[in-house]
Amino acid sequence: MGDKVAETDAVGGSDIESELDRDIGIVGAVALGVGTMIAAGIFVLSGLAVSNVGAMAIGSFLIAAIVASFTAFAYAEFAAIYPESGGGYMYVANTFDSDLTYIVGWSMILGYPASAAFYLASFSDWFYRFLYPALSIPKAIPFWVAGLLVLGLLLAVNLKGTEETGLFQIIVTALKVGLIILFLYGGFQAFDASVAATSFAENATNFDSLFLTSALVFITFFGFEAIATNAEEIKEPGRTIPRAIFFSMGFVTVVYALVVLVIVFAINNNGFIESLIEMGRIGAPAGVEGYIEANAEVAMALAAQYYLGGFGFYVIIVGALFSMLSAANATILAGSRVKLAMSRRNHLLNSSKTFTRH
């Protein structure tokens, strides 16, 4: 708190005084990683992955995690060597010439707002589709209002300070993980090892779909960049960042694997299939996999509704909204750190007079 960066002209001979406090501990760093990795992907891609390769989707997530870990290892090493704000931009800046650094920096400074916009647009869409009817909100209110209000909330939290932003991230991440754990608890009440074994066996030689699905879910593991980008405000970065990166990736991999199993149990459960028929979502049991593939974004919610009762559907919807919220928050925070790093190296077109409280 009370940390401040004062900047003079960022075009010619800038003089930047940095007084960033290290307010983020291991829990906050993990929350940044998990909060970004468990975003909309777990709610959309899990159902799609299961429809492609059944329980072998666990293998797809594992392959994606292993491949992503090579990049994560590089980030962990660089973060320990250069514990400064900026993440990948700073690593390139300390390794290559300034022209390449400039290109990478601007790619990141444009990419982070685009990612945040995607998360907020997804938040608005899900809120409009699922909570407007549940809360009897008039459809006359534009769908983008929810996203705009959330953006205002996130900007206010981020302007307040790094410690407050980190606490907000921890709370939101804990809430969504708690809701996912509730979903897993309900799903594993129907645990059947033979169902999982059969699904594995049926898809064991489907290598094309296995690797294509792995490529599809690969992007879900890149939340570790948000940890490295905030290295300057993480306590004991040489120890904390590598631990936070690999704990986040390991935790998220386990969560994805368990979610895959629960969805596999659902689509092979006669009671679940009958519930879809009763709701008019499918006409016959044979249509369940096709329905899940076409409506992957609600696969978890429908499974939760069957396992937990009527409120289960909204457990997942609210969990998805929390996921988008935490991912947007981490992205906004990381994007501001890239801006700070670029200012220090005169790579911003205009001056930024003050960069307050982070």
UniProtKB/TrEMBL annotation:
The lineage of its organism: Archaea, Methanobacteriati, Methanobacteriota, Stenosarchaea group, Halobacteria. It holds the Pfam family AA_permease_2. The chain crosses the membrane at residues 24-49, 55-79, 100-121, 141-159, 166-191, 211-232, 244-267, 311-335. GO terms for cellular component: plasma membrane. It comes from the Archaea. The keyword Transmembrane applies. InterPro entries: AA/rel_permease1, APC_superfamily. It is found in: Cell membrane. It is a multi-pass membrane protein. The keyword Transmembrane helix applies. This is APC family permease. It comes from Halocatena marina. Keywords: Cell membrane, Membrane, Transmembrane, Transmembrane helix.
